């Protein structure tokens, strides 16, 4: 699952375009999917949206979400390209979870989550697209909703519990996490909320049609099944993905047979775009050590050199970060990670003018790019240019009210807006949105109540706050 974006052709040169994750050319023609009947009405769709948003907030509260605008946007592009092959409406969104396990899940309403372990274990972007397509197919066919128990919400929350347990267990010596995992897994098995074999095969078949129609190589779905199967055979426990998506040799062979029946899609021998994406994920999810990245970077691997710059940036070693970034600037002239990392290096050293001169020109040529706009907004906030920063961010908030990073930037800007008579009210309202979408609903309601008291006398603002407060309170009280 991923929001709506344009698909464009992959190319194999070392010069990268501004879009980074270059999407394959879409295959024209309708994707054939089974008719699941007219039993899903408007009320059920609204309930699915509510469930999706509820789990979205719960996952943000309990899981180690990787909030990186550039990385999120790369997978949103892939997600959106596949989603455009379906009849689903505007999705809830996509989250990247900082967890080395191979896992992904989808929730009614259009919420998709992907673990960093899934990204770093993949050999190419098509394999990730295959997993996304499989999960999207589960949602389009309403596999959760067609199970009465699952549609009550218990299955979704149990699944979220499994993921939480996995995250806790992956940290240090997670005895508590293991207990959580065992408990939620037992609950799933007891309630028979795992996908059935028929549902899995349907998701494989339809998902493969979706990814092929979006221009991805259908062989990659079968390839990744085999990768996961080999990885599982070397460990003594089953990854969470197996518990909710039981993988059988029959499914693997069927996937390969089905892929062989589709016209061939040429794969790239080496994709620098994906290599950069993968190593950047390694660094931001703390899945690679300095020695590991240095070893590859010493072989003049461009992706590793760029990742090493990001690694040193996160360590606060700006000299080393700059040194490694300088090594790749000529080779990656048009890759937006270069100005993004360069801007952060300057911000870390409080060189605000250099930071603005780096990010502003490229952001103005690509105003639709969220990562560039948010980085520019950070610079403007540091410079005290509050109104300009707010204008940049609000464009994206209007498109997606669940954008936590956007609300955080608006809150930071409002904190500096001393000239506004409603400064305190705005800060509280923006803080409430951050708290709400981060899963702290009670705190969000308290912040809105405080804002409501301060806004008395301003009829327009009071009405706006009252409307949003009521919506938060209603959603908080409503059970799934």
How would you describe what is shown here?
The chain has a domain at 42-261. It is 64% helix and 3% strand. The protein has 23 helices and 3 strands. It has helices spanning 42-62, 69-83, 116-121, 125-140, 148-151, 154-169, 175-191, 197-213, 219-233, 240-244, 249-261, 272-284, 290-297, 302-315, 318-328, 337-348, 352-365, 370-383, 386-399, 404-416, 423-437, 441-454, 459-477; strands at residues 93-97, 104-107, 111-115. Strand 2 and strand 3 (111-115) form a beta hairpin. Helix 4 (125-140) crosses helix 8 and helix 20 (404-416) runs antiparallel to helix 21. The longest helix is centred in the first third of the chain and has 21 residues, at 42-62. The radius of gyration is 23 Å and the shape is flat. The model is unreliable at 1-20, 27-40, 160-194 and 234-243 (pLDDT under 50).
Topology readout:
Blueprint: H1 42-62, H2 69-83, E1 93-97, E2 104-107, E3 111-115, H3 116-121, H4 125-140, H5 148-151, H6 154-169, H7 175-191, H8 197-213, H9 219-233, H10 240-244, H11 249-261, H12 272-284, H13 290-297, H14 302-315, H15 318-328, H16 337-348, H17 352-365, H18 370-383, H19 386-399, H20 404-416, H21 423-437, H22 441-454, H23 459-477
Parallel strand pairs: 1-3
Antiparallel strand pairs: 2-3
Binding site for Zn(2+): 134, 138, 200
Subcellular location: Periplasm
Domain Peptidase M48: 68-256
């Amino acid at each position: 699952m991923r929001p709506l974006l344009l698909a464009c052709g992959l190319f194999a040169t070392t010069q990268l375009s501004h879009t980074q994750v270059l999407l394959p050319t879409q295959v024209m023609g309708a994707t054939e999917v089974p008719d699941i009947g007219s039993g899903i009405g408007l009320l059920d769709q609204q309930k699915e949206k509510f469930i999706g948003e509820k789990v979205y907030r719960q996952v943000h509260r309990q899981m180690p979400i990787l909030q990186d605008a550039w990385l999120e946007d790369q997978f949103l592009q892939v997600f959106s390209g596949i989603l455009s092959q379906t009849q689903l409406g505007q999705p809830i969104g996509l989250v990247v979870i900082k967890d080395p396990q191979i896992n992904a899940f989808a929730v009614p309403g259009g919420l998709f989550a992907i673990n960093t372990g899934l990204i770093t274990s993949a050999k190419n972007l098509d394999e990730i697209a295959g997993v996304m397509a499989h999960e999207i197919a589960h949602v389009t066919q309403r596999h959760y909703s067609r199970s009465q128990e699952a549609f009550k919400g218990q299955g979704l929350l149990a699944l979220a519990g499994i993921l939480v347990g996995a995250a806790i267990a992956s940290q240090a010596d997670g005895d508590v996490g293991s207990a959580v995992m065992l408990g939620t897994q037992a609950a799933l098995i007891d309630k028979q909320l795992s996908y059935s074999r028929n549902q899995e095969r349907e998701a494989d078949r339809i998902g493969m049609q979706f990814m092929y129609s979006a221009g991805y190589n259908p062989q990659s779905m079968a390839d990744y099944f085999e990768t996961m199967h080999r990885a599982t055979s070397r460990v003594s426990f089953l990854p969470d993905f197996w518990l909710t998506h039981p993988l059988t040799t029959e499914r693997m062979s069927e996937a390969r047979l089905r892929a062989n029946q589709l016209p061939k899609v040429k794969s790239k021998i080496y994709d620098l775009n994906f290599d950069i994406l993968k190593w950047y994920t390694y660094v931001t999810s703390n899945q690679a050590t300095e020695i590991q990245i240095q070893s590859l970077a010493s072989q003049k691997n461009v992706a590793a050199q760029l990742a090493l710059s990001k690694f040193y940036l996160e360590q606060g070693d700006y000299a080393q970060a700059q040194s490694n970034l300088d090594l790749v600037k000529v080779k990656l002239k048009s890759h937006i990670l270069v100005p993004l990392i360069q801007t952060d290096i300057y911000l870390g050293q409080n060189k605000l003018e250099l930071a603005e001169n780096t990010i502003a020109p490229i952001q103005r040529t690509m105003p639709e790019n969220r990562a560039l706009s948010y980085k520019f907004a950070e610079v403007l906030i540091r410079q005290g240019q509050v109104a300009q920063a707010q204008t940049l961010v609000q464009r994206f908030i209007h498109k997606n009210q669940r954008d936590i990073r956007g609300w955080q930037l608006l809150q930071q800007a409002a904190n500096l807006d001393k000239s506004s008579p409603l400064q305190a009210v705005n800060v509280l309202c923006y803080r409430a949105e951050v708290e709400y979408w981060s899963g702290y609903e009670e705190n969000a309601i308290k912040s809105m109540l405080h804002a409501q008291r301060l806004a008395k006398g301003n009829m327009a603002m009071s009405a706006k706050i009252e409307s949003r407060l009521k919506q938060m309170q209603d959603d908080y009280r409503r059970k799934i």
